[in-house]
Amino acid sequence: MLPTASAPIAKLLTMMESSARFARESVRRAAAEFGPAWEADFSAMLRNVYGSDVELQDAIKGYAVFVMDSMRRQKRFEQELSYPAKTYAEAAAEVYYNDDYMRRQYLPGLLLSHYLWTHHYQQIEYFKGFFLPWLLREGVEEFAEVGVGTGIYSRLALQTLPALRGTGLDISPLSLEFTGAHVGSFGFGPRYTLRQQNILEEGSSQQYRAVICVEVLEHLEDPVAFLVGLKKLTTLGGRLFVTAALNAAHADHIYLYRKPEEIIAQVEAAGMHVENSFFANAYAPAKRDLPVPGALAMVLTPKA
Ligand SMILES: C[S@@+](CC[C@H](N)C(=O)[O-])C[C@H]1O[C@@H](n2cnc3c(N)ncnc32)[C@H](O)[C@@H]1O
C-alpha cells in the first residue's frame, strides 16, 4: 500500500490483488515518480469514471488482459522487427468496431495505461506543460480532438480552461460513447460535442485554433494524408498537439515508426512545423539494439 494513497487508489490496489497483482508495482512506481498531481488526477478519474466496484474490477481485469496481450505482441515484434501485416480496414473491424473488445479490454486498458505507463504519463505532463499553457495565454475558446479513444486529453483540456469548448471526433462509436461518459462524469458534457467522423473521408467545414490528436498516426496506412487532414482542421496561427507510438506492437498498430525523425519528416511533408517535441521510451532495453516502445509528442504549427 502507498503511505499516502487516496481512497480510490487504495481500493484499486486492493482489487488488483486478485486480478492484476503485477500492476500494483506500476501504481507504486507512478505515485513515487509523479507525485501529488498524478495522485489527485488519477483518484478523480477512478472516482468519476468507475462509479461502482464492479465497474472498477472489470476495468482492472481489462487492463490486465490488455497488458498481457501487448507484451505477447511485443515479444513477437522483438523477433520479427515488423508488425503483422494488417490493413486499416482489418484493424478497424478487429478493434474499433468490436463492441466486446473495446468495452472489456481496449478502452479500460488504454485509460489505466495513461496513468500507469511511465512514458504515457510523461506525455500527459508534456501536454500540461507545453500545450495547455498556450491555450490559456491565447484565450483559445474552442478545440477539436481527433481519435478521442478514452477522452482523457479532451477532459484534461476542459478541466484546465473553464470556458473552453471542445469537439471530439472518432470513427469508433465505442470510443465516442466512452469519451462522452468520461467527459460527462467530470461535469463537462455541456461544453463538449462528439461526432463520428473519419477526417480522411470527410473534411470539416469548421476550423479550430487548437487541435489534439494522440496516438492515432501509427494506426493508419497513410499517416501523411491524415496529418494533412489535421492541418486543414487547424486555423493559420493555431497549434496542434500530436503524438505517435514507436516500436509498440498493439492489435491496431499497423504503421511502424522506428525513429522519431520519421514522424517529424512526415509532419514537415504535411506542411507543418515542429515547435517542440518530447520523446520517451517505455523502459530501458534489456539488450542492446532490442526495440522498446516509445512515444513522441509534438506541438505543431501549420505552415502558410
Ligand atoms: C489508441 S486510440 C487513441 C488514444 C486516445 N487519443 C486516448 O487518449 O485515449 C485510437 C483511436 O483512434 C480512432 N481512430 C482510428 N482511425 C481514425 C480515423 N481515421 N479518424 C478518427 N479516429 C480514428 C480509433 O477509433 C480509436 O478510438
Write up this protein.
Helices cover 51% and strands 18% of the residues. By secondary structure, it is of the alpha/beta class. It has a domain of 185 residues: Vaccinia Virus protein VP39 (Rossmann fold, 3-Layer(aba) Sandwich). Strand 1, helix 8 and strand 2 form a beta-alpha-beta unit. Helix 1 packs across helix 3. The longest helix is centred in the first third of the chain and has 28 residues. The model has no long low-confidence stretch (mean pLDDT 96). Bound molecules: S-adenosylmethionine (SAM). The site of S-adenosylmethionine (SAM) has 21 residues, from helix 8 and strand 2.
Could you give the topology of this structure?
Blueprint: H1 7-19, H2 24-49, H3 53-80, H4 88-96, H5 99-116, H6 118-130, H7 132-138, E1 142-146, H8 152-160, E2 165-170, H9 173-185, E3 192-196, E4 208-213, H10 223-232, E5 234-246, H11 260-269, E6 272-281, E7 294-302
Parallel strand pairs: 1-2, 1-4, 2-3, 4-5
Antiparallel strand pairs: 5-7, 6-7
Helix pairs in contact: 1-2, 1-3, 3-5, 5-6
S-adenosylmethionine binds next to helix 8 and strand 2.
